[in-house]
Fold:
Amino acid sequence: MIKMKTCAKCTQEKPLDGFSKDKTRVNGYNYLCKSCVREYRQTPVGKKVAARAQKKYQATPNGGRIRKRYVQSSAGKTASARAMRKYRATHSERRKAKNILHNAIRAGRITHQPCIICASMENIHAHHGDYSQPLSAVWLCRKHHCEHHRAEREFANS
Structure:
């Protein structure tokens, strides 16, 4: 006799092999069938949840080892080169501004300044509000630079 289970989303009764195993559940199986999970993972919210879970896994020691092994493989090197080409093509203005600023710092025409919010000199970043003016950067510590970009993203999404 095949054991059956009802999916919480599509409410169809399916055999247990239609559900993924989940040891956190009482019966040992996910509450959604595999086809509903597959459908969910194609939605924007599902993709965001999957990306967050993968990032969390890669922060673990095992995830870090696996990621490092992949990056050193030929497939990983090819993927990295493809991503770099894509970034360079889509962010050429940003790269130019960053290079001009770094060259000015190296030449001594500009020096690192303290964070304009907390006056810290540790982990200083140059934030470009306008890439067409590469030498007029605002100096922020890493913490405040991240907070600034987080606020920009939240404003753009609202």
About this structure: The mean pLDDT is 94. The longest helix spans residues 74-90. Residues 1-42 form a domain with the Wheat Germ Agglutinin (Isolectin 2); domain 1 fold (CATH 3.30.60.130).
